[in-house]
Specification:
The protein has about 100 residues and is mainly beta. It has 2 domains: about 1-45, no CATH class; about 55-104, 2,3-Dihydroxybiphenyl 1,2-Dioxygenase, domain 1 (Roll), CATH 3.10.180. About 10% of the residues lie in helices and about 35% in strands. Strands 5-8-7-6 form a 4-stranded mixed beta sheet, with helices on one face. A two-stranded antiparallel ribbon has the order 1-2. Strand 7 (about 90-95) and strand 8 (about 100-104) form a beta hairpin.
Amino acid sequence: MAAVVEHRGRRTFRGYAAIRHPEDPFDRASGVGRGRRLLFQDVPEAKSGKNRLHIDVHSEAGGLDRLVARLEELGATRVREVDRGPAGHWWIMQDPEGNEFCAA
């Protein structure tokens, strides 16, 4: 994925890389999305505490294993599995820079 690059000996998101939903409108000249998107912005300081934003990435019904495998291909790592029975089942994951998010 072009948004993930090697930086200071580790995998990280390329500065100002944006990921947009393929079905949302976008500017054909620039590729900039006009709908839902995530923008990864470089900041000079390292993460110093709890995430400023928490993201849940949801899979299609029965697709959690495929989603987790795809996220690992992109550089994410598994932190902990959470199984709350009827209340839900998900994985706490980390991106290449250590930011936590959930795959459900």
